[in-house]
C-alpha cells in the first residue's frame, strides 16, 4: 500500500538505519523513494494488539489522513474511541468515550508515547540511517521483511524491535509490527489507501464542545 507508507514512515522517523553488516535494503530504498512523492491521502488500517504469548488481545479498525508536513489525523475504533491529531497549532489526543482531550507539547512525557508522529517524514535511507539500525532482512515469495532496532536508547527501552513487511513486486507496505520490551506487540495491517489531492483543513480541527481538558 503506497499511501500509508507516509504514516508508517512518520511512525519510523525516530529510529533509522545504520548498516553495520551487509543487509539487502534495495526494496526499502525503492519504497522510501516512492513515498517521498506522496503528499496527501487517506488510509484504512487494522490495528491488532498481541500479548506476550502471541495471542490476539484486541483488533480495531482505524482510518488515517495525512497532509504533509503539518497535518495528521488517526481515528481508532468503529465507532471512533480515540483520535490523535496534529495540526500547526499542536498535537492532541482525544478520548471520544470519556469526552476529554489533552494537548501535548513536544517535551511532555506523554508525547513521547506518540513521538514518532512529531517527526518529519524521511524520504531516503540516509535520513533513516540517523535513527535506525537494520538488524536483518529476508524475503519469502513477494514479501520482503526488514527488522529495525532503534538507535535511541530511550525508545529502545520500550520498543526494542520494529518489523516492516513490504510487497516487493508492488512496492507496497503490508504491515508494521512494534515489539515491546514485555514481549507484547502491536501490528498495523494496511488495508487500502487513496490519494486525496485536496483534504479540507477542517478534517484536522476537531469539534470539542462539551469535552473536558485533561492536564
Salient structural properties:
215 residues, alpha+beta, 12-stranded mixed beta sheet, 12 strands, 42% strand, globular
Account of the 3D structure:
The protein has 215 residues and is α+β, with helices and mostly antiparallel strands. It has a domain at 5-61 and 121-198: Lipoprotein localisation LolA/LolB/LppX (outer membrane lipoprotein receptor (LolB), chain A), CATH 2.50.20.10. It has 5 helices and 12 strands. A 12-stranded mixed sheet has the order 7-8-9-10-11-1-2-3-4-5-6-12. A hairpin with a 2-residue loop joins strand 7 (132-140) and strand 8. The protein is globular and about 55 Å long. Mean pLDDT is 83; it is low at 11-21.
Name of the CATH homologous superfamily of the domain at 5-61 and 121-198: Lipoprotein localisation LolA/LolB/LppX
Terminal Cα span: 37 Å
- The CATH architecture of the domain at 5-61 and 121-198 comes to Clam
Low-confidence stretches: 11-21
Could you state the order of secondary-structure elements as H and E? HHEEEEEEHHEEHEEEE
Mean pLDDT reading: 83
Number of strands: 12
CATH class of the domain at 5-61 and 121-198: Mainly Beta
What share of residues is helical? 10-25%
Widest β-sheet, arrangement of strands: 7-8-9-10-11-1-2-3-4-5-6-12
The fraction of residues assigned to DSSP E strands is 35-45%
Structural class: alpha+beta
| Overall spatial form | globular
Q: What can be said about the biggest beta sheet? A: 12 strands, mixed
According to CATH, the fold-level topology of the domain at 5-61 and 121-198 is: outer membrane lipoprotein receptor (LolB), chain A
* Backbone CA Rg: 17 Å
Give the number of helices. 5
Organism: Persicirhabdus sediminis
Keywords: Lipoprotein, Signal
Signal peptide: 1-20
InterPro entries: LolA/LolB/LppX, OM_lipoprot_carrier_LolA-like
